[in-house]
Specification:
Elements: H1 3-7, E1 14-18, E2 21-23, E3 31-36, E4 41-48, E5 60-61, E6 66-78, E7 80-85
Antiparallel strand pairs: 1-7, 2-6, 3-6, 3-7, 4-5, 4-6
Length: 86
């Protein structure tokens, strides 16, 4: 992730994801951050861009935490999260 993506977090749009399911960014954008809103945000899978970390199945994001990266899609199994695009 480059510095511009971090500063602009949220300016590229965001999506409130509740419960299970996949999220993909709008055309021409990537997912740059995932912010957990409760203690039960669990990843099912992610598709990182080259050079960025994969959030493997079962990864739990603690409430209030934000994970930065760059993904072409993410899938949650539970919880509520704000997905940021950049």
């Amino acid at each position: 992730m480059n510095f511009a993506d971090q500063i602009a977090m949220g300016q590229g749009g965001s999506f409130l994801k509740s419960g299970s399911g996949a999220v993909a960014p709008p055309s021409g954008k990537a997912i740059v951050a995932i912010q957990a809103l409760n203690a039960n945000v669990v990843m099912a899978s992610s598709a990182p861009e080259t050079g960025f970390a994969d959030l493997v199945s079962g990864t739990t994001i603690p409430a209030g935490s934000t994970v930065l990266g760059r993904w072409t899609s993410v899938t949650l199994t539970s919880g509520n999260a704000i997905i940021y695009f950049g």
